[in-house]
Amino acid sequence: MDRRTRGSVMNGYLKFIQKKWGVEGLAQCKKDVGIEDMEFRDGQYYQDAIIGNVLRWMHREKGRESLKEAGKFIMHNLGILSWLVRFTDIETLAKKFPKNYSEVYAFGKCKVDLSNPKRLILVLEDVGYYEEACIIWEGVVEESLVMTKTKGRVTHTKCQRQGAPHCEFVIDVY
Ligand SMILES: [Zn+2]
Question: Which of the following CATH numbers is that of domain 89-173: 3.30.70.1350, 3.40.50.150, 3.30.565.10, 3.90.1520.10?
Answer without folding.
Answer: 3.90.1520.10
